[in-house]
Amino acid sequence: MAGTKGTPVSAPGHRGKSQKPERRVTIPFEDNRLAAILFGEFDANLAVLEIRLGVEAVAQGNVLSLTGPEEACQTARKVLEDLYARAKKGQPVKPADVEGAIRLATMSDLASVSDAGGQPAGHPTGKGEIRTRKKLVAARTPAQGTYIHALESKDLVFAAGPAGTGKTYIAVAYAAQCWERGLVERLILSRPAVEAGERLGFLPGDMREKVDPYLRPLYDALYDVLPTEKVERGLETGEIEIAPLAFMRGRTLLNAFVILDEAQNTTSMQMKMFLTRIGDGSHMVVTGDPTQVDLPKGQISGLSEAVGLCRDIDEVAIIAFTQKDVVRRALVAKIVAAYEAAT
User: Fold this and answer.
1) Predicted TM-score (pTM) of this structure
2) Pair 83, 101: CB distance under 8 Å
3) 14 lies in a domain?
4) What domain count does the chain have?
């Protein structure tokens, strides 16, 4: 039953624990249209902000009022200002983007980076962003930001960690950006054709039809960051090549951006073969999840071995993602955490 007028329903002393002093912050946004994008449909983006940061967000037109603990309000303000800047660039702002911005604003632990050259330098944007003609890809965790900076400054980058952390997607987006800017002449994307614990048997069709199912995730990422017609033209001219790892043997890859995905399923010899394909003007990225090895029992993963062997090479960066960096959706992060806890 609600209290009478002028009488609080519950006194602060009845809450069971002391509360941090609250403050109110008012943030005006100059563009009503962009403010609507920022707040989200039915204020869905503001709801994420409230749940994650423990603040109350009330929108009136293009003015937003935040009420909550001082630190939470300041974090929310930073998140909103960053997302508003994203909206000004013409990019959508979805609940997942709010989650990522909050992660960036609150996480103090950066990715584990091993490179003898110290902090990556010389990155053109300085903001952990990748821009292609079709899309702007922004870092949504500190680890992703570190990853992008490593891609911009190192010739060979290893990215290892659980599913959903953006390892492959960011690599493909950065490769596409380099290709569009004329920094490389070709994109070469590869995967080992290893069955994930299943026996698929005989696959009908020509060679491409047989191997394409293994390579489909690479196609998906490429079509997401580049216009369809540009991808199709690149595939026809050979400027874009998507092929199984076995097709790399005996080649020297010049002026190319080369990506090896699912590298945890390479053998030691396959990995050595692949890494030694890199030629003048080329950059290479190797991604994989060490917890999802589909090699025969007792077989050493080429990814884990290569990370250890190349750790002290100046031109190499090693990025280690964790379940904290999962951006696919909150459920995926919980699933990864559950498996990690069980091992």
Assistant:
1) 0.71
2) yes
3) no
4) 2
